[in-house]
Each structure stands twice: as C-alpha cells, then as structure tokens.
Amino acid sequence: MATFVMEAKNVYKTYRIKGDKKGEEKGVEAVKDVSLTIRKGDIKLIFGPSGSGKSTFLRCMAMLDTPDKGQIYLGDECLTKSGVDLNKARARIGFVFQHIYLFRHLTALGNVELALRQVLKLPKEQARKRALDALTEVKVCDCANKYPSQMSGGQAQRVGIARAIARNPDIILLDEPTSALDPELTGEVIDTLRDLAKEGTTMLIVSHEMPFAREVAEEMIFYDEGRIVEVGPPSLFFNAPNTDRAKQFMTRIINRTTR
Amino acid sequence: MDVWQQLIFLLEGVPLTLSISIISFLLGIAIGFPLAFLRVYEKEVSFVIDGYEKIFRGIPEIVLMLMFYFGLGPFFPIPFGSAFFVAAFVLGLRSGANQSQIYRGAIHGVGDEQMIAGMSVGLSKWRSIWHIMVPQVFTFSTPGLGSEYALLIKDSAYVYVIGGLAEIMTISIRLKSTPPYDAITPFILAAILYIIITFPLAYYLDRWGNKRKKKIGL
C-alpha cells in the first residue's frame, strides 16, 4: 500500500512552439526533473512566474499531457507505464482549469452529472442527487439549471470545482483557479477552496493568492524555469526564503498585493 | 399553353427536386459527420479521407452522374440503373465531402479545451467526442449547412442530363421544346420555384443555430 496519494518522480516535459523564423521550431523545457509527493490530506501550493511551466507540470500529473520522461504514480499505480487505463485514473483525479472549460452545451447540473453517469455509471437518480450535493457544497445550487454563458465567472468556476469533486476523487489539482476572474469574484472561489481545505481534501494548487496560501497551505513550492527551486512552509517564504530568486519573487508579489 | 398551365406542370417536379436534395443532404450528414471526427482525431486515416474529399469536391457532379448512370448503369442496373439513386448518391457523396469540411471547421471552432475538459473527468476520447463535441459541433455548423442545402437544391438541376426524372429542371426543358416553344417563361418560373424551396429550410437551420449558439455562448 502506497503511503502517498500521488507522486511525480523525475518528470520531464518539453513542448514545441513555433520559432521566430518561418518553419523553425523551438523546444520549451517546461518541466525539468521535477519530483513531488502528496500524501492524503496534504494541501500543497505551487507558485512562480508565469510561463515557468507550472501548468504543464500539473497537466502531466493528470496525464492530460504525457511526460517525456519520469513517472507519475496515483497510489500504487504507475500512470506513465504503457497499457494503463488512463480514463479510469483520471476519474480518480479532479482537475480545475484556469479558464474553467465548462461544457458549454450543458447546464451546471449537466456538467457535474456527466461523469457520474458516463464514468461512474451511477443510475440517473443517484447521479442527480450527488451532482446537486456537489453544487450545494460549493454554494451554486441556484445555478443548477443555468448554462455556463448565463453565469458569472465566479459561479462558473465553482461549478468547475463541483465537477471536479463530485466523483470523490483521491486528489484535486487546481490550475490557477482564480487568475482568470475579476478581483471581486476571486473571493467566492477562495471561500470554496477554504471550505474544501477544512474538510481535509487533498489538493495541489497552482495559485498566487498569497493570503490564502498562508492560511491553508502546509507546503509551498516555488517553481521557476521548469524546476522546483525551493520548498517550505508558508512561514519560510513570508519571512526569509533561502534562495535569492524566491526572495525576489516574494518581494514583488507582496508589494503588489499590499499596494 | 399559358403561364398557369406551365406552372402546374413545374409544380409537379417540386416533390422530386425536394426529395433528391433532402436525401442527398441526409446522406451527406451521415458521411460527413463521422469523417470530420475521424479526420481530426484519427490522424492515421486522414489521408484516405483527404483523398475522398479531393475527389468529390474536384470532379464536377455532372461528370459523376454521367459516369455512374451511363458508365456503370448497364453493368449494375441495381442500383446504378436508377436515375434517382444515381442523383441522390452522387450529390450525397459530394455533399459528404463538403460537409466533412464544414464539421471539421466547427470542431476546431469548438476548441480542444472542451475535449481536454472531457478527458479530465475520466471520459475516454470517443466518449468525450460523443458527449461533448458532437452536440456543439452540430450547432456550430448551422450557417455552413444552410448554404450546403441551398447548393444541393440548385445542383439537383444537373439531374436533367441523365433524363428520366421529372424534377423542376427536366420539366422546364420539356416545356421549352413543346408548342408554343416558349423559351423564357418556364425558366423564369423554375427560377422562382428554386428560390422558394431553398430558403425555408436554410432560414430555419440558421435561426435554430443562432438560438442554440446564444444559449451556449458561442
């Protein structure tokens, strides 16, 4: 029996983008030798400059991107081995996207219900009840019959969270869940995350919401240029980070939020 | 023969024109829809589909109709001996090639993110396609489908080259060559009929699509 919920071991990922010259391709090393272990009930927060590869790493964890090298474990199962049923594995991982990506042709209820019906194969009544429970938990029950285009960004993102938690996944991965929202809407999403944290949900969050991080994260991970630069409790980062790079970044981010 | 008599003759051709276009339109959906998804999501077979699209978009339908009816008809009277079958078959295959491109554009328009979101909740690739892409792609395609349908109504007129099918065009040519050899009125009437039968469905498709699109915020 594995002692961790998820583990990344020496993961590498390079993706190709178009270069400056015509027809030229450049490789961007988004993830370079990253290892990370998450135990049950852990709340870990990844932060760092944009474009440093945090999102790519998170997508690799959910196998929405295939790592070039290294292993991803979900419990005892190695997801990077060939022949693994990735759909089954993804059903046990909740994923919340920065740009939400709700299914646009379905109502909030439909969004949450879909996987319960089609992946967990629950009977209709049971799926509906569980979907409503999930929507109630994130306090968007009143939006159950609304389409994504009829919701505010904050409501939509909470539906996104409901979609991720309804299956009772082993872990929830959140990719900058608030950064695409208006500042006044981030609060309601943060409140939802805080509630999840209180219930002991295992979470790996990419976020720059520093007050929130300080409050709920057990461990913060500073990520830059495809690598984990420094790891420690929030107190370390808010007082005196060891690396210059983290120091620099924290100064900038704290100045920004207090100004 | 006065105008009204001519009109009555022409009206008799409307059901046939409509059935050729509607059947080929449906055949086009049945062919084009799966092809578009295969083309986007199964890269290994895309060259076959590409070939099919090039052939049927590249060859004039008049050539295909003559080829199937007169070339294959004598050897395979079933089904190619039937003018109706050849007409619907050729137009349907051509429409399948066109519609495949329409749907492919729509798939890209709906966006890869919807697929990724589907996979993220544990759906397999083809289940994501079925539950998430298919309903949106159809909505996204409605303007293109409207013009495709209009095209089929118009192209059904080519059927006169194989003869034997009393649709609007064939009848108007017959009227031209019967006394009093009026070479203008039958064609003007045919033109009016074509316009009248083209627009209701195209208009309805467009309106339905816009309503759905508004609802899903596209």
Describe this structure in words.
The complex is a heterodimer of chains A (259) and B (218). By secondary structure, chain A is α/β, with parallel strands linked by helices. Chain A has helices at residues 54-61, 86-91, 108-118, 124-137, 153-165, 183-198, 210-216, 234-239, 244-258; strands at 6-18, 25-38, 43-47, 69-74, 77-78, 93-96, 171-175, 203-206, 219-224, 227-232. Helices cover 37% and strands 25% of the residues of chain A. In chain A, the strands form 2 sheets. Chain A has a 6-stranded mixed β-sheet, sandwiched between helices. In chain B, 80% of the residues lie in helices and 0% in strands. Chain B contains 11 helices and no strands. Chain B has helices at residues 3-11, 14-41, 46-58, 61-72, 77-80, 83-110, 112-120, 125-140, 142-155, 168-176, 185-216.
Compact summary:
The complex is a heterodimer of chains A (259) and B (218). Chain A has 259 residues and is an alpha/beta fold.
Discrete helix count of chain B: 11
Structural class of chain A: alpha/beta
N-to-C terminal Cα separation of chain A, in Å?
Answer: 48 Å
Q: What is the number of E strands of chain A? A: 10
How much strand content do the residues of chain B show? under 5%
CATH superfamily of chain B: MetI-like
Number of strands of chain B: 0
**Most extensive interface:** A-B, 27 and 22 residues
Could you give a short account of the major beta sheet of chain A? Answer: 6 strands, mixed
Instruction: State the helical fraction of chain A.
Output: 25-40%
Query: Given the structure, what is the number of helices of chain A?
Result: 9
Largest sheet of chain B: none
Radius of gyration of chain A: 19 Å
State the secondary-structure class of chain B: mainly alpha
Can you lay out the helices and strands and say which pair or pack?
The complex is a heterodimer of chains A (259) and B (218).
Chain A: E1 6-18, E2 25-38, E3 43-47, H1 54-61, E4 69-74, E5 77-78, H2 86-91, E6 93-96, H3 108-118, H4 124-137, H5 153-165, E7 171-175, H6 183-198, E8 203-206, H7 210-216, E9 219-224, E10 227-232, H8 234-239, H9 244-258
Parallel strand pairs in A: 3-8, 3-9, 6-7, 7-8
Antiparallel strand pairs in A: 1-2, 1-4, 4-5, 9-10
Helix pairs in contact in A: 3-4, 3-5, 4-5, 5-6
Chain B: H1 3-11, H2 14-41, H3 46-58, H4 61-72, H5 77-80, H6 83-110, H7 112-120, H8 125-140, H9 142-155, H10 168-176, H11 185-216
Helix pairs in contact in B: 1-10, 1-11, 2-3, 2-6, 2-9, 3-6, 4-6, 6-8, 6-9, 7-8, 9-11, 10-11
